[in-house]
Amino acid sequence: MPANGLNVGVDFSFGLFDANTSSTLNLGDVQSVKETAQKHDISSRPYNAIPKFAIVPDGYSGSMTVVRTGSQMEKLQIQLSNNFNNGVAILPGYLTKIVTDPDGSVSKFQYTGVAFFMNDIGDVSREKTVTQTIEWKAGDKQQLA
Asked: How far is CA 38 from the centre of its chain?
Protein backbone atom coordinates (compact mmCIF):
# COMPACT_ATOMS: atom_id res chain seq x y z
CA MET A 1 0.00 0.00 0.00
CA PRO A 2 1.08 3.60 -0.45
CA ALA A 3 2.77 5.29 2.48
CA ASN A 4 2.01 8.86 3.59
CA GLY A 5 0.42 9.76 0.24
CA LEU A 6 3.32 8.43 -1.85
CA ASN A 7 3.70 5.40 -4.08
CA VAL A 8 6.58 3.35 -2.69
CA GLY A 9 6.81 0.43 -5.12
CA VAL A 10 5.15 -2.33 -3.12
CA ASP A 11 1.79 -1.03 -4.32
CA PHE A 12 2.54 -2.13 -7.92
CA SER A 13 2.02 -5.57 -9.41
CA PHE A 14 2.83 -6.87 -12.88
CA GLY A 15 1.60 -9.80 -14.93
CA LEU A 16 3.00 -10.90 -18.28
CA PHE A 17 0.70 -12.87 -20.60
CA ASP A 18 2.44 -14.86 -23.33
CA ALA A 19 0.21 -15.46 -26.36
CA ASN A 20 2.52 -18.24 -27.59
CA THR A 21 1.73 -20.44 -24.60
CA SER A 22 -1.63 -18.80 -23.73
CA SER A 23 -0.51 -18.44 -20.14
CA THR A 24 0.37 -15.82 -17.57
CA LEU A 25 4.05 -16.17 -16.80
CA ASN A 26 5.58 -16.55 -13.38
CA LEU A 27 8.02 -13.66 -13.43
CA GLY A 28 9.71 -14.78 -10.24
CA ASP A 29 10.23 -12.31 -7.42
CA VAL A 30 10.08 -8.93 -9.20
CA GLN A 31 12.62 -6.56 -7.62
CA SER A 32 12.46 -3.55 -9.90
CA VAL A 33 10.73 -2.40 -13.06
CA LYS A 34 11.72 0.38 -15.44
CA GLU A 35 9.09 1.68 -17.86
CA THR A 36 9.88 4.16 -20.63
CA ALA A 37 7.66 5.89 -23.17
CA GLN A 38 9.40 5.87 -26.56
CA LYS A 39 9.18 8.73 -29.05
CA HIS A 40 10.72 10.13 -32.15
CA ASP A 41 11.10 13.78 -33.00
CA ILE A 42 10.01 15.37 -36.25
CA SER A 43 10.76 18.87 -37.44
CA SER A 44 10.31 21.32 -40.25
CA ARG A 45 12.95 24.00 -40.60
CA PRO A 46 11.86 26.21 -43.49
CA TYR A 47 14.02 29.08 -44.72
CA ASN A 48 11.07 31.50 -44.76
CA ALA A 49 9.41 30.75 -41.38
CA ILE A 50 10.11 29.73 -37.83
CA PRO A 51 10.85 26.03 -37.26
CA LYS A 52 8.12 23.64 -36.18
CA PHE A 53 8.62 20.60 -34.01
CA ALA A 54 6.52 17.64 -32.93
CA ILE A 55 6.97 14.57 -30.81
CA VAL A 56 5.43 11.37 -32.11
CA PRO A 57 4.62 8.53 -29.67
CA ASP A 58 6.58 5.42 -30.60
CA GLY A 59 5.54 2.67 -28.18
CA TYR A 60 7.01 1.74 -24.84
CA SER A 61 9.93 -0.23 -23.50
CA GLY A 62 11.16 -1.43 -20.19
CA SER A 63 13.02 -3.95 -18.14
CA MET A 64 12.42 -5.99 -15.02
CA THR A 65 14.93 -7.31 -12.56
CA VAL A 66 13.65 -10.49 -10.92
CA VAL A 67 14.98 -13.00 -8.44
CA ARG A 68 14.87 -16.45 -10.02
CA THR A 69 12.26 -18.65 -8.35
CA GLY A 70 12.05 -21.36 -11.01
CA SER A 71 13.01 -22.28 -14.55
CA GLN A 72 9.82 -21.17 -16.33
CA MET A 73 11.28 -17.99 -17.88
CA GLU A 74 14.48 -19.72 -19.02
CA LYS A 75 12.49 -22.53 -20.63
CA LEU A 76 10.23 -20.02 -22.36
CA GLN A 77 13.23 -18.07 -23.70
CA ILE A 78 14.66 -21.29 -25.18
CA GLN A 79 11.26 -22.19 -26.68
CA LEU A 80 10.88 -18.74 -28.27
CA SER A 81 14.41 -18.92 -29.71
CA ASN A 82 13.72 -22.38 -31.12
CA ASN A 83 10.41 -21.22 -32.58
CA PHE A 84 12.12 -18.30 -34.30
CA ASN A 85 14.92 -20.49 -35.67
CA ASN A 86 12.36 -23.00 -36.97
CA GLY A 87 10.20 -20.40 -38.70
CA VAL A 88 7.32 -20.58 -36.21
CA ALA A 89 5.40 -17.32 -35.76
CA ILE A 90 6.03 -15.62 -32.43
CA LEU A 91 2.96 -13.83 -31.12
CA PRO A 92 3.09 -10.67 -29.01
CA GLY A 93 1.67 -10.74 -25.50
CA TYR A 94 0.37 -8.34 -22.86
CA LEU A 95 1.88 -6.77 -19.77
CA THR A 96 -0.62 -5.68 -17.12
CA LYS A 97 0.27 -3.21 -14.38
CA ILE A 98 -1.97 -2.71 -11.34
CA VAL A 99 -1.29 0.19 -8.97
CA THR A 100 -2.92 0.99 -5.65
CA ASP A 101 -2.94 4.77 -5.70
CA PRO A 102 -2.32 6.88 -2.57
CA ASP A 103 -6.04 7.76 -2.35
CA GLY A 104 -6.91 4.04 -2.12
CA SER A 105 -8.19 3.71 -5.69
CA VAL A 106 -6.78 1.09 -8.04
CA SER A 107 -5.45 1.91 -11.51
CA LYS A 108 -4.97 -0.80 -14.12
CA PHE A 109 -2.91 -0.41 -17.27
CA GLN A 110 -2.14 -2.85 -20.05
CA TYR A 111 0.72 -2.74 -22.52
CA THR A 112 -0.29 -4.41 -25.79
CA GLY A 113 1.79 -5.97 -28.54
CA VAL A 114 4.49 -6.91 -26.04
CA ALA A 115 7.66 -8.64 -27.19
CA PHE A 116 10.00 -9.70 -24.40
CA PHE A 117 13.41 -11.27 -24.05
CA MET A 118 15.37 -12.50 -21.05
CA ASN A 119 18.75 -10.97 -21.79
CA ASP A 120 20.41 -11.56 -18.42
CA ILE A 121 19.77 -15.16 -17.39
CA GLY A 122 21.59 -14.78 -14.11
CA ASP A 123 24.72 -14.20 -12.13
CA VAL A 124 25.11 -17.31 -9.98
CA SER A 125 26.91 -17.05 -6.67
CA ARG A 126 26.79 -19.03 -3.43
CA GLU A 127 26.26 -15.92 -1.30
CA LYS A 128 23.28 -14.31 -3.02
CA THR A 129 20.08 -14.93 -4.92
CA VAL A 130 20.16 -15.32 -8.69
CA THR A 131 18.87 -12.19 -10.40
CA GLN A 132 17.66 -12.10 -14.00
CA THR A 133 16.67 -9.27 -16.33
CA ILE A 134 13.74 -9.31 -18.74
CA GLU A 135 13.53 -6.62 -21.41
CA TRP A 136 10.32 -5.79 -23.24
CA LYS A 137 8.87 -3.50 -25.88
CA ALA A 138 5.20 -2.71 -26.42
CA GLY A 139 3.29 -1.05 -29.22
CA ASP A 140 0.69 0.68 -27.06
CA LYS A 141 -0.57 1.25 -23.51
CA GLN A 142 -4.23 1.37 -22.47
CA GLN A 143 -5.86 2.30 -19.18
CA LEU A 144 -8.23 -0.49 -18.11
CA ALA A 145 -9.53 1.05 -14.86
From this structure: 13
